[in-house]
Amino acid sequence: MKVENSKMVSVHYTLTVDGQIADQSREGQPLQFVCGAGMLLPKFEGAIMGKEPGEKVSFTLEPKDGYGEIIPEAIVDLPKDIFMVDGKLAEEILFVGSQVPMSDAEGHRMLGTVKEVGEQTVKMDFNHPMAGKTLNFDVEVVEVRDVTPEDLASQGGCHCHDCGGDCEGGCDCGSDDCNCGC
Questions:
Q1: Whole-angstrom distance, CA of residue 51 vs CA of residue 44
Q2: Backbone torsion region of residue 19, taken as left when φ is above 0, otherwise alpha when ψ lies between -120 and 50, otherwise beta
């Protein structure tokens, strides 16, 4: 069976960035995903489309095809006092490289990386950690099979491709483009 949309795919992979291994699957624990469900980078899925178990492929994704370019406006100085918890500065999270979950004024959740801790401010980077990076993948297709209801439940259920809404309740955007055919 070949990799195609709406199939459960298992792969072993190694991601190399700047000559260093940035991520990889563990032996005996391949990455599993429903192809075409929007869980992985579209160009990643495109590179393995049509492959069969046992086939290997190496490919490179430029930033625009990976996690995007660095957006300078996503690097901001925030007042240090917003990192107060119970009247005390949360020093255990305020160090360079720390990833801190935060929310914007509209309640959107995002992950920021501490770039610098100053006297009055904390410089936070809300770009994806891999933004601006060239991604080099070595991938081996391990298994391709039909999707089961159990797979859908373990992958977060049934979702709309266009807006991420729950198909059973109707997609928020009015689309019928669901990953499970409902």
A1: 12
A2: left
Number of Cα atoms under 13 Å in the Cβ half of residue 94: 19
Question: How far apart, in whole angstroms, are the C-alpha atoms of residue 105 and residue 84?
Answer: 17
Is residue 27 within 8 A of residue 149, CB to CB? The reply is: no
Closest of 53, 38, 63, 41 to residue 171, by C-alpha: 38
CB neighbours of 54 closer than 8 A, spacing ≥ 6?
140, 141
- CA-to-CA distance for 18 and 27, rounded, in angstroms? 23
The residue type at 58:
S
Number of DSSP helices (H) and strands (E) in the chain, helices first:
2, 11
Q: Rounded CA gap, 122 and 90, in Å?
A: 12
Render pLDDT for 133-165 as a digit per residue (tens, 0 to 9). 999 999 999 999 999 887 777 655 554 444 444
Q: Which residues contact 51 (CB under 8 A, 6 or more apart)?
A: 2, 3, 57, 141
Query: For residue 155, is it left (φ>0), alpha (ψ between -120 and 50) or beta?
Result: alpha
pLDDT tens digits, one per residue of 7-28: 999 999 999 999 999 999 999 9
Q: Which helix (H) or strand (E) holds 117?
A: strand 109-117
